C-alpha cells in the first residue's frame, strides 16, 4: 500500500499501522497506514486498548470534541517513563498521549473494546474515534495481512461492532486501503472486488443504524495514483452515498494543503461529499518518493479538531496512532503497530 493504514492490535492497545502506499503498519504506495499504504495492522488486534482502568488519568482538553484515552500505547509509555524517573521524555511524549487518537478494531475483542471505549468517551462527554479494520484479504497479504476469513464472518464482525456502539456518539473510519486496493495491482479484482464493495456497503449500513455515528470510507492519499472518477465509482459501489464522507492520508505523511486539494477533487467527483484528514504525522509533509515506512524527520501534524476552517473538511484526526511502527522496513524497526519510543519522541520533538 502506498501510505497504508494498518493496525496491529498488540499489547495493551490496538495499534494503527500501515499498508500500501504509506502504511499504518506496512506498505504500499498510496494507501492508508498499512493501510495507508500506508495502513497496516497486524492482524489479531484486539486485545486491549483501553480495556481496563478508569478513564480520567489524562485530562480531556477544554473545547476538544474527541476522547483522549488513558489506555493508548503512548499513555502507557508516559506512565512507564515517569515511573523510571525519565521526566523529560515523559513530558515530550505527552504531546502525543494528551491528544485524542483513534481506537483500531481488528480480529480480537472488537465488540468488547468498541463498547468499553465508546462508553468511557460518553461518560467523559466526548466522542470516540474508531477504525474498523477487518476486511477479508486485508492489506494484500502485506504487513497487516489478515482480516475476517470470509464475507459471512465479516458481516457478523461489523454487526457486532455496530451493536457494541449502541446509540453512543462515535466516528468510524472504515477499512483503510480497502477501496483503493481494488484499483491497484493488489489482485482484488472481479468477483473479489464486487464482494468487497458489497461488504463495505453493508458495513456503512450497519454502522449508520446508530443515529449518532459518523462513518467515513477510506479513500487513499495524494501519493497513491488513482483516477478520481474511477475511485469515486468504487466508493459509490462501497456505499459512500449512505456514509458521512471519506477519509484521506490514513497513516501517511502528506501535508494538509495537499490532502485538502486531493480531497476536494474527489469530493467534486462524489457530488460534494465531506471528508476528514489524518494529520497525525503530517507536520513536515511526506519525505518523497515511496518513503512511507517509518521515514525519518517527520513530525506531528495539526491536532485533532472539528474546527478546520476548510469547507468540506469535517475534521483533522489522528487516525494513525503516532509512535506506532509502520512495519519492519529492513532497518530493524518493530513490526507494524508496535509502539516505538525513539520514533515517537522524534515526531513530538519535531512538531511545531
Q: What do these coordinates show?
A:
The chain has eight helices and eleven strands. The protein has helices at 73-83, 87-97, 110-123, 151-165, 190-207, 228-237, 256-269, 341-350, and strands at residues 5-7, 9-10, 13-14, 39-41, 103-105, 128-132, 170-174, 213-218, 245-248, 274-278, 313-317. The strands form three sheets. It has a seven-stranded parallel beta sheet. It has a two-stranded parallel sheet with strand order 1-4. Strand 8 (213-218), helix 6 (228-237) and strand 9 (245-248) form a beta-alpha-beta unit. The protein is globular. 61% of the residues are buried. Mean pLDDT is 85; it is low at 1-56.
Give a topology summary.
Elements lengths: L4 E3 L1 E2 L2 E2 L24 E3 L31 H11 L3 H11 L5 E3 L4 H14 L4 E5 L18 H15 L4 E5 L15 H18 L5 E6 L9 H10 L7 E4 L7 H14 L4 E5 L34 E5 L23 H10 L2
Parallel strand pairs: 1-4, 5-6, 6-7, 7-8, 8-9, 9-10, 10-11
Antiparallel strand pairs: 2-3
Helix pairs in contact: 1-2, 2-8, 3-4, 4-5, 6-7
Short précis:
With 352 residues, this protein is an alpha/beta fold. The protein has helices at 73-83, 87-97, 110-123, 151-165, 190-207, 228-237, 256-269, 341-350, and strands at 5-7, 9-10, 13-14, 39-41, 103-105, 128-132, 170-174, 213-218, 245-248, 274-278, 313-317.
